[in-house]
Amino acid sequence: MEAADAVKDIKRADLLQMYYYLRLTRALEDRVTALYRQGRIMGGVYTSNGMEAIAVGYSSAVGRNDIIAPYHRDMGAFLIRGITPGEVIAQYLGKRTGPTKGKDGNVHMGDLKRGVIGFVSHLADNLPVATGVALAFKIRRESRVVVTNTGDGGTSRGDFHEAMNFAAVRKLPVVFFCNNNQYAYSTPLHLQMAIPDVVDRAKAYGMPGEIVDGNDVAAVYVAAQRAVRRARAGGGPTFLECKTMRMHGHSEHDSAKYVPRELLEEWKKKDPILKAEQMLTKLGYADAGTLHEVEERVKKEIEAGVEFAEQSPMPEGPEALEGVFASDEEVKP
Amino acid sequence: MTTAAPPHEVTYLEAISEALDEEMSRDDSVFLLGEDIGPYGGAFRITEGFQKKYGEWRVLDTPLAESGIVGAAIGAAMMGMRPVVEMQFADFISCAFDQITEVAAKNHYRWGAAVPMVIRAPFGGGVHGGPFHSECPEGWFFHSPGLKLVAPSTPYDAKGLLKAAIRDNNPVIYFEHKFLYRRLKAVLPTEDYIVPIGKAEVKRIGRDISVITYGAMVHLALEAADLLAKEGTELEVVDLRTLIPLDKQTIFESVRKTSKAIMLHEDNKTGGIGAEVAALVAEECFDCLDGPILRIAAPDTPVPFSTTLEEFFLPKVVDVVAAARKLAAY
Ligand SMILES: Cc1ncc(C[n+]2csc(CCOP(=O)(O)OP(=O)(O)O)c2C)c(N)n1
């Protein structure tokens, strides 16, 4: 089914909600980048600029009890799961109110209560972990699903292959997304793999795979829904390659001179927010006024977040010693 | 609950099986995963008959992929399961190093999610396994905050420590010594018991020299102690049992009493656990030391294959006796 047809089945409220999260993601990451330029952020800033539709699309397609295991360009996923802009900024500022209480930085966030597996720097490490989440669901016969994501570069790691294989062999309820933004840091796709489409890797594991327009939030949502439904019904894992483009440097310190300007110009026309606005207008779901309201709402939320984060306390030095081990009393999630 | 078995003698290996069996029937969230552990029962037959009893989904044969296996165990653990991974040999744990040190070890510290998981690692030499089936990899993980490490030396401890490890809310690597599997037998209590993680045990009381050791080397130390007793030198043998967190109190109490310490382990000497314990003893017990802290350990080579080479490589009773005589002279 073409995404253009499928979009008709998506409720207006859901599409508007996704649009809101696209804007919230963009505004939050722009604000964090501005803070970074002012020298107020500790460590690096990795954004999903131009790729927001992937996390927003897949996170909108999962249910309340499902689990997500995002990677480093999935800000929308954290937001949809209820991690607030304030908490995100607090995390970037190393504050105690961030999801890791200052123990870890930037997008290395997680919260089991909100169904988010924490991201680790080591790329693809979370894919076997997601497989294990799905394994627990399968052992307990729960109809829950886990969705995870990786970059194209991450698919070169052994853990990607070990996870895909295990999940396929055991038909586990996991959906593997891949954000193919053409580059891994400075390495272009053709030096990453000898195949034109990452999705070809799924075939080796006997897993169905699809190519999705990663800049079209509705297309991502529909593909995710289909894969989630399949996983929930016992049909096993799916691999979804989202074609997109990394519009900023690898992180905000990187000017990305190695990316041809024309390529960026071409992809700019396919900006996911622009695309979503065109779709909403075409469907008659929103006019300029509605879109403007979203923009205003987002602005307010981000500024409230900045204030929350700035007023939050820093952790005390000796808190560095806390939490190495879980206590005996700690309840199971 | 399983009904209590009548008193019976079990090997070290059977003690491990019993612990797994009892924990699996006590708690539905306990499950096993690893290579060839299902119908085959594992390379050492520790899980023989388990799949028949508990089903395919609680005794899972996995693809040959240690990183994937440990990663999956971590994910399942976060969902409230208590996975027990079997490494076919401890040596292959290197393939899962990243998942263990970067994901499992740091998870709770970083974002508060507990990882109650056990990795069983059949380790150690003396079985002519060569460089890839004899390793003592505990030193690699000794330096990774967030992991607990245990290494039982008797059937009693093997059972009790494994049960404690399964019930612990943290990732625990359980180093089971292959050389001891079928060489040791003991009558175990019929009632449920655990050996608490973090507690060393003085396996032999002695006034003259503390030998601090773990795993199969405990038995070497005990043998040496018998010989030395005839010369009037009394060794105190401290079995660490848990490597992380170290039972510093028991170590210090023993050394304060004897004023002399020997570190004994099968792992390579450089950067081994003996080095850390020696440093701790030097820091805390300097005033009461009457001689140098000595280390007896394997030389810094891979574990060689051939009988003569491996015999040379492994610490021996005569090494302990020689070190003790040297120290006794102080
Ligand atoms: C195992 C590992 N090696 C290297 C890095 C450093 N690093 C961080 S992001 C990155 C590129 C990632 O590329 P890709 O997986 O395609 O994701 P993208 O950033 O393009 O979304 C690299 C090399 C890392 N985090 N993990």
Mean pLDDT of chain A: 96
Instruction: Please compute the radius of gyration of chain B using only Cα atoms.
Output: 20 Å
Helix/strand order of chain B, N-terminal first: EHEHEHEHEHEHEEEEHEEHEHEHH
The best one-word shape of chain B is: globular
What is the second-level CATH architecture of chain A?
Answer: 3-Layer(aba) Sandwich
β-strand number of chain A: 7
* Ligand list: thiamine diphosphate
Termini separation of chain B? 55 Å
Structural class of the secondary elements of chain A? alpha/beta
Q: What is Rg of chain A?
A: 19 Å
Please describe the topology of this protein.
The complex is a heterodimer of chains A (333) and B (330).
Chain A: H1 3-6, H2 12-37, H3 52-61, E1 67-69, H4 75-80, H5 85-92, H6 126-139, E2 146-151, H7 158-169, E3 174-180, E4 183-184, E5 187-188, H8 189-192, H9 200-203, E6 209-213, H10 217-232, E7 238-243, H11 261-268, H12 272-282, H13 288-311
Parallel strand pairs in A: 1-2, 2-3, 3-7, 6-7
Antiparallel strand pairs in A: 4-5
Chain B: E1 9-11, H1 12-26, E2 30-34, H2 50-54, E3 59-61, H3 66-78, E4 82-86, H4 97-111, E5 117-123, H5 138-142, E6 148-150, H6 155-167, E7 171-177, E8 185-187, E9 201-204, E10 209-213, H7 217-229, E11 235-239, E12 242-244, H8 248-258, E13 261-268, H9 273-285, E14 294-298, H10 307-313, H11 317-328
The structure holds thiamine diphosphate.
